[in-house]
Amino acid sequence: MAFRSLHPGSAHGRQAEARRNDLAVLEAARDVFSARGADAPISAVAERAGVGMGTLYRRYGSKTELLQRLCVIAMEQALAAADVALNAADPWTGLTTYIRACVEMRSGALAALAGHVDVTAEMRVIAERSIAAMTEITVRAHGDGSLRGDVTALDVSLLIEMFSRRAPDLPDLAEERNAQDRLLAITLDGLRAGGATPLPGRPPSRDRYVGRWSSR
Questions:
Q1: Between residues 30 and 3, which one has the greater pLDDT?
Q2: Among 66, 105, 106, 152, which residue has the least CB neighbours within 10 Å?
Q3: Hey, what domains does the chain have and what are their CATH numbers?
């Protein structure tokens, strides 16, 4: 799923072109940095977006600024999906809709940046809201007995991360998505309560999950 303008159709001329360029840069940056990590050159982003380096630097003063903005937008989109999930009448439908939406947006693809980006106050606030929303989504599904009791919100988050990883230039994207849809359907059935094999090991640690974003 591509990044979307917050005000579609409201700009004209140069403003509209600038907005299109910005969305192209963000889309390209997500593909480049999720595939190649934070050390990928920013020139690769400009090349993939089809814009000049001058255009990119007029919008983002540095690679760090671009990475931070990318993380914020990804979390904001995931929060919007969480709002939809929490308004669903059926908790299981809300949970699975949230997971599918986040996987489609590849919201977990930027986990590769953890520890390589200076975390801003804005990023921390949105991250806390995201964790709280995920927790509420899982609590609702636990409450009506649809989600197996040993699955935590962080299990769900890590699941989304795993399904968000995808190389940006696959030879047959349609076939890749077909395979992913099948595996995701199998995985979601594995989250259902009833007749499940107990999970091995310990639940994911919140401190470790959040601590990955501490600069190394």
A1: 30
A2: 152
A3: 64-211 (1.10.357.10)
CA 167, CA 169: separation in Å to the nearest integer? 6
User: What per-residue confidence (pLDDT) applies to 54?
Assistant: 87
Q: Give the DSSP letter of residue 38.
A: T
Determine the Cα angle at 212 with ends 207 and 214, to 5°.
100
Q: How far apart are CA 75 and CA 127, in angstroms?
A: 7
Decide if 57 contacts 33 (C-beta within 8 A): no
pTM (two decimals): 0.81
Looking up tokens 């000049």 gives 52
The mean pLDDT of 58-65, rounded to a whole number, is 88
Backbone torsions φ then ψ of 88, nearest 5 degrees: -70, 140
Q: What is the mean pLDDT of residues 35-61?
A: 87
Tokens of 50: 């089809």
Exposure class string for 6-44: b at 16+ Cβ within 10 A, else e? eeeeeeeeeeeeebebbbbbbbbbbbbbbbeeeebebeb
CA separation for the pair 109, 33 (Å, rounded): 9
Three-class DSSP labels, 160-202: HHHHHCCCCCCCCHHHHHHHHHHHHHHHHHHHECCCCCCCCCC
Residue 6 clears pLDDT 70, i.e. is over it: no
